[in-house]
Amino acid sequence: xxxxxNTPPLELGKTVLLMAATLSLPGINLAQAETAPEHGIISYxxxxxxxxxxxxVDSASGASSSLSNNRVAVKANSLALMMPxxxxxxxxxxxxxxxxxxxxxxxxxxxxxxxxxxxxxxxxSVTRYLPRGTVSVGLNKSKENDYVSKGxxxxxxxxSEDKNTTLNAGFALSNDEIRVSEYLPWEKxxxxxxxxxxxxxxxxxxxxxFNLGYSVGNGYFSDPYKSGENRPESKxxxxxxxxxxxxxKATNGASHIGYRYYNDTFGIVGHTFMLEYTQPFANGWSxxxxxxxxxxxxxxxxxxxxxxxxxxxxxxxxRYKSLDQRLGEFGAWTxxxxxxxxxxxxxxxxxxxxxxxxxESWALSGNGNGTIEPFNFRSYQxxxxxxx
Length: 388
Known about the structure:
Number of helices: 1
CATH topology: Porin
């Protein structure tokens, strides 16, 4: 299992495909249509991800690691299918396989240890379309060498008579098993998520959305691959999401502005600001530039001291402690672009590129202590879909 597990929002996971899902509950699709689809869609996507961090020392040799520039690589393939059934139902299914290789630091951004893993994940959901709403039920499972997750979700929407207001509510439950050591029993973790929200048509050109999420988790939240790691056995979190979409008649384009607030019982408070703009062009082309800024405070039990600091031993004597840089204070910028081409009535291809950079000094509170080197990643994704 990599260092990329059990993280706060907008951090990296073993499958970077999940980055786009940080605004919703696991297994819950907030963009679900209110009317039954007339056509099915099958799509394939390939993701290539590579991150980098300088100044990391190899744990075996004690020297600067040759992996310090290119740290973790992920290559993922995904296949998704949605089919209408009997005019009032739809069935959706997806499968993801990703291969991870590279190295992960034991503490802060120091002492790399090599890693290699493969993950298979799938989900299936059934949706019933009603005159003024929908009901969806979903199941999902993810399995890798040292982590197994199984989940269930239930979602419903209800629209006003004029269809200008849509209420949504969702529930999701996940049960995870984590292998801490080949000599010890697997640890367990359970997370329950709730979400309520409203989508409102403001004008002929404006739509706004507001969602409130709450999560309760119990079990194993530590990372056994980190030195001296011991996190609390429970973690609750609250999220607030606000989004506003505006259509520009003059350009036939649309802006998408969003803000997300995050708070958990580890003591982390995060803020995400998002901006996207979609511009269609002739002959089926469209371009969407995007940017995001994320900032978070450190967890209450995060130790940002260098091991050479005289206070380090005293801090490590606490019951709960972590040297995981993902629990530290930092700010991060993401920028990218997505290009889409409608080949004909049924075929669509797309390409998306993103670049991410993270620094302690970019945190809004500005209390970073300089123990973490800047972190970067780049990813690109190509996809093709067909309507039938």
